[in-house]
Amino acid sequence: MLLAPPIIVMVAAVVLAYILIFVGEVAGLKALGIRTNGSALAFIIGFFLATFLCVILYIGIVFTGAANYLTGALAESWTRKQLSVLGAEWRIFSNVPFSVGFGEMSYEIDVDHIVVGPYGVLVLETKYSSSPIDLGGSQLEKRIGDAMVQVEDNSGRVRALLHQVDPNVPIRPIVIFWGRLVKSPDSFVRRVEGRGEDVRIVHGGDAKIWRPRLTEKEVLHSASVERLSTKIDDYLTYMNRRSST
């Protein structure tokens, strides 16, 4: 990504611009009769190097997709913090890997969070939006629809994993959006009909409102929660061993 042609061209353009600005500034100071002694020249060079490195860092973060990764990772940490308040009877698993496809065409995806508790198994997909998005809009925005598809696909993978333990375990797909410009649904929890279970769509900032609803109904006893959690623990151990070989 860092060596992609557009980024190389952009960096080269920045380098050339900085050289031209530096040469022009030194020439301008001389034309004004201002002497650029060693200290002044060192200050100018240091200033240009510092700003140049900042610009290159900005290009690297923005144009390689690192910014999206960092904001996404931060949003996932916010989600985990809100879920951790649920209590000891809930088990939280983060960044659970699943293999998709076969052979050379296979790749790995991560499920942001799987949460097992009295209300069932929650499969959560976390999204961050820096642009306006209305979670309760009459027209389902593409970003919301894409997130729904992703969380439903992940719910299917989790269901397949837990099928041997409990084929009828309730799997609740949830999409959590974070962002200052994200507008909450009127009811704070929007339910959209999915392939099987309804998909819940919520704003992360409304956790104090939607989080208590996860404790209103108990459908799994503690023994079931333990068996399902053990299955996920064993799966993660297997995946970790496989990735280390």
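Next protein, fold it too.
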Amino acid sequence: MALGVLNNINAIYAQNNLANTQASLSKTLQQLSSGSRINSGADDAAGLSISQGLQAQIGGLTQAVKNAQDGINVVQTADGALTEVDSILQRMNVLAVQANNSGSQDAGAVAAAQAEFDQLAGEIDNISQTTKFGQSNLLDGTFGASAASESFSVSGGSVTASTASFKLAGTFNSTVLAATAVTVADGTYSTASDFQSALQNGIDSTLTTAGIAAGSVKAAVTDVGGGVWKVSFNSGAVGSGNTFATSASAGLTDGNSNTLAFDGTSSAQGSGGGTFQIGADAGDTQTVTITSADSATLGVAAGTDVSQSSTITAVQTAIKSVSTLRSTLGAYQNGFQHTINNLNVTVENLQSSNSAIQDTDMASEMVNFTKAQVLQQAGVSMLAQANSASQAVLKLLG
């Protein structure tokens, strides 16, 4: 090979090989330090795609396990309350059998039994109304149900009521309300909360006059900004698939002097049942339905004549109903537990598959790391030798 000074080919070869070795060493260091074989799409494009899909599935299933556990917690909460309802019904059964023993029970004893029976019925209602998981009632028949609702927009940042009213109609907790006027107290309402209170007061007055529980229709007024209020009426008392209606609004104007018309029919109330997402994909759900366990639904409401033989039958039927509901809840709980077991096994297998794709083989990479280190040191040495070889040309010039 001719001696020259413009191009040191040997040095170029050594430099290229050293650069390749340096890149290999850098990649190996990255894999060893991160523990991951794939740190960018360039490492393994297909493997990255598969790994990300597996990670999404693993994350979804891990959360699904938590959701299923929440389902167990909900069911256990309801069952715990029903345990006490069961105990109350057993006592009511004793009272009914006792009160029907007319041969030895005088009027005073029957009256005492009746008073206790009515008190126990009230306690069943209290349990039904107050048993909750978070903010969801479990035993009043509304668990998982969506309210029937309608909404309207109000502009101008205020509402003025002058001899104001609108009509409300519907069937609430089995009581029919024909189109009846709801009166809104006169005044100018400059805040959403004040107007909400006025609407709710008027609605409750109309409902209670008709023998319907206050709060069966709830008003909500929200300030959404820009002087705009959202007014909505909601009811969880009309029953699954049913609606209510408002009409004939009068005497209400917004801050821009526009007449407010609360005229319309609500969306239907959704069916009961809490839905739990127990899988990673859409549609992987379990619905838990919990029927009402109040005294009226069970047929043992306060005022039921404890001295009648039919009451014994009614109480025994109620005991069977509660037992059936508890059995159903137990089946839900067992189902959730089997789901959790299956999900945990699936997550374990998916993590193993993802590990095979994603994780660094530390032993293999240490071999590569040692090899790259030796080549790096050799490359540096050879590059130095190649650079020094061209200096021999200077001897010819001397």
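About the second fold: The chain has a mean pLDDT of 88.
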